[in-house]
Design a protein that fits this description.
The complex is a heterodimer of chains A (234) and B (110).
Chain A lengths: L1 H17 L15 E8 L2 E9 L4 E11 L5 E18 L4 E17 L12 E8 L2 E7 L3 E8 L2 E2 L6 E2 L2 E9 L9 E11 L7 E9 L4 E6 L5 E8 L1
Antiparallel strand pairs in A: 1-2, 1-15, 2-3, 3-4, 4-5, 5-6, 5-7, 6-9, 7-8, 8-11, 9-10, 11-12, 12-13, 13-14, 14-15
Chain B lengths: L1 H20 L3 E7 L4 H12 L4 E7 L4 E6 L7 H10 L3 E8 L3 H7 L4
Antiparallel strand pairs in B: 1-3, 1-4, 2-3
Helix pairs in contact in B: 2-3
């Protein structure tokens, strides 16, 4: 069983190494470390890198691509990010964290729905300032994991206001406890919603592999779209 | 000749025991250490100390052991601060005369 998971792990690591650096995530690493993260699916692609200037504060950059289910709306965000560990509860056998995650930057919005009928040839496209403050709470032991995130994505537009507020809940369990040097497999289910991009809740069951050097997740959502996430600290 | 051999064996055992006694390992119990990916910061911070010979991390028992190079010392406060920088809290810290490999072997397997 463990050998099978190790093979999975190696396969995912090879996949990760073939992705561009822009495929990176996770709120932040330890002091003086760089954290990179990627979240990839056809409708949501996020690359994020930050540097922890203190054990509780990190500054970084992120690039996010969002697309509606009908593929008519697309958003490209480029942001400077700030991550703050608001509070951490370190217990003997568990850890819980409350994070602030925020970004300020620009969004390039494009709406193909205005490219029809009388509006043909006038597809709406503009670039605006955007703010994306959010909070995340997570709780973890060596066997169970829970996290919930709420984040606003707001911008003022000339044609329309942009509101793609985001919410997600994740929960899962590990198949067994692992030594520090071993890779630990987890089963995680995530439910997330993105305002004005999708009418339905995206549900993604994922296999997560945690190693002391890397963190990868892969799954298929309820729209049969592949999803791949990873984090790396260097 | 026999006495010489006995004396040599005795001297070897005595020296070996003395060498073992000089091993300095700082053993730390860490609260919140539940994930290998997150705990890598502790290992990296402790390995970066010039006095460090080896580091052992046990997630299940929340133990970190830092074996120091011969003749080196590190204050508990330095270790506590490094663990804190990595995002964790030290619940107990002590110096033991065991190399990291012995600490690893002594950990319960269950």
């Amino acid at each position: 069983m463990k050998n099978l998971f190790l093979m999975w792990c190696k396969l995912l690591l090879i996949m990760a190494s073939t992705l561009p650096f822009s495929a990176l995530a996770g709120p932040m690493g330890f002091k003086d470390s760089w954290m990179s993260m990627g979240d990839f699916s056809p409708n949501w692609r996020e690359a994020f890198v930050n540097y922890a200037v203190t054990p509780r504060d990190a500054w970084g950059m992120s690039q996010t691509y969002m697309r509606s289910d009908d593929k008519n709306l697309t958003r490209d965000l480029t942001e400077v990010t700030y991550t703050r560990l608001l509070h951490r509860w370190n217990a003997k056998n568990s850890q819980a964290n409350l994070w602030f995650i925020g970004g300020l930057g620009v969004v390039q919005a494009h709406d193909e729905t205005l490219d029809q009928g009388l509006h043909q040839g006038h597809g709406f496209s503009e670039t605006r300032a955007i703010a994306s403050p959010g909070v995340q709470f997570d709780y973890e032991t060596t066997r169970v994991y829970f996290a919930t995130t709420a984040r606003l994505y707001r911008a003022q537009g000339t044609a329309q206001k942009i509101n793609h507020d985001y919410g997600s809940v994740r929960a899962g369990f590990s198949f067994y406890e692992a030594e520090y040097e071993q890779t630990q497999p987890w089963f995680i289910v995530e439910a997330r919603r993105m305002h004005a991009l999708s009418d339905k809740t995206e549900i993604t069951p994922m296999l997560r592999l945690i190693n002391k050097n890397y963190f990868v997740e892969a799954g298929v959502n309820n729209s049969r779209q592949a999803r791949f996430n990873f984090m790396y600290i260097f | 000749m026999k006495n010489l051999i006995k004396l040599s064996i005795f001297a070897f055992i005595l020296l070996a025991g003395t060498a073992h006694a000089t091993v300095q390992t700082i053993k730390v119990e860490v609260n919140g250490m539940v994930c290998a990916f997150c705990a890598q910061g502790i290992e990296k911070k402790l390995r970066a100390m010039p006095q460090t010979k080896d580091v052992y991390v046990n997630l299940k028992h929340k133990v970190v052991a830092v074996e120091l190079k011969d003749g080196q010392t590190v204050s508990f406060d330095v270790v506590k601060d490094l663990v804190k920088d990595a995002g964790y809290e030290v619940s107990h810290i002590e110096t033991i005369n065991q190399p990291v490999q012995e600490v690893k072997a002594s950990m319960p397997k269950d």
